[in-house]
Amino acid sequence: MAGAKKYHAAAVLAVWLLIVTFFMILNRTLDLEVFFVLSLIGLLVVAVLIDGAFSRPRYMRYLGYVIIVEVAIFAYIVAEKILEIIAA
Amino acid sequence: MIPRTSHIILVAAAVLLTLLLAGEAVDPVLYAAENISTAAHADPSTIEKRSPGDAASVIPLMDELLGHTGTLALTIKIKDYESAQRDLARYSELTSQFDRLVVTLDLSETDIAEFQKNNRQNQEAMAALLNDSQRLDELQSLEIEVLDGDQRMAVVYEGEALRQKMRETYTAYAKREPETTRIATHYGANATPYQESVEVIAEVAGAAEDWQADAPRSPLNISVTPREGRYGENLSIGGRYADGVPGTPLTIYVDSRIAGNTTLDENAAYAYPYRIGRILAGPHLVYATAGAIFSEVATFDVLPAETNISLAIAEVNRTAVACTGNLTTEDGRPVQEAPVLLRLDGETLISTQTDGNGTYARTLILTGGEHTVRAEFNAAGYPLNSSRSGVVSIQVRGEGLSPFPFIAAIAAALGAGWYIRRRGLPPEPPVPEEPDIEPPPEIAETGPSVEIEGLPPRDAATILFRALRERLGIPATKTPRECARLAPDHAAFFERYERIRYAGETPTDEELRAMEREALGRAD
Fold it and tell me: What SS3 state is found at B401?
């Protein structure tokens, strides 16, 4: 049962990305930055939901590394936007 | 089983996504013209196919419209204003009907649309002519009643303005006649009433010209030379004041607004140079006053002129560019104090203004990358036509790569790593197995003495537990259960204490004595 959790998480994340893509296409606004931020939000929600209270499986550690990298990219995007606003 | 389900979901999602993207790439129109679901998605090009019956009513309607112009012009001419109002209302209704038909049948690209535009203007011209004729009649009766100088001049002035307006209306109406007749004839409509209406309107406008003929002449006369000019040119407004004394101040009005002041010279004449500036193209009225004396009303025409706007861009620094240029008329006169718009990247508008030499300058702060700039002059309120410069591209270097985003990214990564690590730590480190801790050898000598006399039984038990734990050398951090595991020989003592401590049981005196013996290591 515990092993299935990660597969459920992956499927939920894929569905989330699909929904995001669908609405972006519908709205004709394909924006990589927005897509990335929404995917990060999905990943964080999934990570919080599958994280156990008493055990820490190996995949959670790997997920942590992914989150660290994505948060770093997110911070880069935010900082760039701030610079753009200041420059405008 | 579950991994397989997940794989199926993932593959299905990937296939669906690919199909969505592929569909978008091949045919980017989500709503087909023929297959509309709501009115908001209606495509006019498909409407004709769905309502072919409306097309048959276009020509009869054109016929009716042309017929109405003749009737309306005649009723205005004979000053039957009530009938004219009714005819005009009917004519307006038919015009709106025709407008709707042109839109419904999507005829906006044909000469029917041109006819529609001319007809709309004719309808406006008729409405204006009717109002002006009525007002002119009122003024004529008013002029007979009013004898006071100031009011009389106001009436004369308004009459002159109306006369001008009617003349203009007629000129525009007559100008549209050949094209409208051509289109009407092309479609087999009867244009005769319309052609007759042009002649009738000419008579109405001509009648208006005569109304002031018998007005008494003012001692202050006025003339404008030349009678027409373009932007930046000087006109001379001048005349004589028959009864005036030299030095009398005069005020010159253009379109009822003070244009300037001048004085009479020794010959009782005056001259005022008027420079054509920000004034609309077309006819304008001018008169002069000397105290309570009003001059007659003179007219002059301002002709529209073409303009040229230039744009040059120079780099100021890594992020700023200077946009400069000149706004001049076709004959090279600078257009002064005129608003100029800079269109950045085809969207953003930045406004600036020309100076006295027709030159404008504006510094723009831009982000890195290629940008396009175009200067535009919209000519609102000027007797000039709008103009646009060419599009100028500029490559802005930008401020270079800022370290800030990288620092932010590293800081965020470190922060996220710390948070995840901290969050992942269990609340208490797992209890290390301590196989090396052997139960301490039984100590033969008597342990430390404890005093439990007079204490409540449960407190006494706690003191005895601590004494035994100390005697056995077990760390004070261990719980009774851990102590029982570490010292199995005294497991019964520790388990009993656990029940006293956590289950709230109260030991009897007998038990306390037995525990004291065990805690202190007494054999008896």
Answer: coil
Question: Are A22 and B20 within 8 A, CB to CB?
Answer: yes
Closest residue in A to B424 (Cα–Cα): A56
B227-254 burial code (b ≥16 CB/10 A, e <16): eebbbbbebebbbbbeebeeebebebbb
Res. B212: pLDDT tops 60? no
Confidence tier at B290 by pLDDT (50, 70, 90): confident
Q: How many helices (H) and strands (E) does chain B have?
A: 12, 18
Please, is A62 exposed, middle or buried when counting C-beta atoms within 10 Å of its C-beta (0-12, 13-18, 19+)? exposed
Return the residue in B4, B17, B401 with the most chain A beta carbons within 10 A, the one to mutate for interface testing. B17
Distance from CA of A65 to the nearest CA of B (A): 8
Chain A: which residues have CB within 8 Å of chain B?
A: 4, 7-8, 10-11, 14-15, 17-18, 21-22, 25-26, 54, 56, 60-61, 64, 67-69, 71-80, 82-84, 87-88
- Interface TM-score (ipTM) > 0.95: no
Alpha-carbon gap, residue B27 to B33, rounded angstroms: 13
Q: Please report, for chain B, the start and end positions of each structural domain, with discontinuous segments joined by +.
A: 54-209, 223-302, 307-396, 457-520
Assigned superfamily of B223-302: Immunoglobulins (2.60.40.10)
Chain A neighbors of B426, CB-CB under 8 A = 54
Inspect the interface and report whether the beta carbons of A78 and B404 lie closer than 8 Å. Answer: no
Instruction: Decide if A83 contacts B404 (C-beta within 8 A).
Output: yes
Contacts of B367 in chain A (CB under 8 A): 84, 87-88
Cβ of B408 within 8 Å of Cβ of A4? The answer is: no
| Cα B87 off chain centre by | 41
Is residue B190 within 8 Å of residue B67, measured between CB atoms?
A: yes
The three state secondary structure string of B250-315 is EEEEECCEEEEEEECCCCCEEEEEEECCCCCCEEEEEEEEECCEECCCEEEEECCECEEECCEEEE
**How does residue B439 score in pLDDT terms, banded at 50, 70 and 90?**
low
Is CATH 2.60.40.10 the classification given to domain B307-396?
Answer: yes
Neighbours of B56 (CB within 10 A): 8
Tokens found for residue B173: 């109406």
Block residue for tokens 């439990």: B452
Local confidence band at A73 (pLDDT 50, 70, 90 cut-offs): very high
Share of chain B above pLDDT 70, in %: 84
Mean pLDDT on B180-186: 86
Residue B444 DSSP one-character state = -
Stated pTM of the model: 0.44
The residue with tokens 């299935």 is: A4
